[in-house]
Amino acid sequence: MDRKRREESAIKDRIKEKQNEKSEGMERVVLTRLHLSASALKYLALLAMTADHIAVICRPIPGFRTFGDLAFPLFAFLLVEGFFHTRDRRCYGRRLLLAAVVSEIPYDLAFSGRWMDAQHQNVCLTFFLALVAMELLERYGNGIWEKLVLTAVFCTLTEAAGADGGAWGMGMVLAFYFCVIGNSGTNVPRNILFHEKTAGVFMKIIVAVLIGAFAWQEPLWVLALTAVCFMLYDGSRGRSRFRSFFYVYYPAHLLTLYFVGKWLG
Question: How do the domains of the chain map onto residue ranges?
Answer without folding.
Answer: 42-264
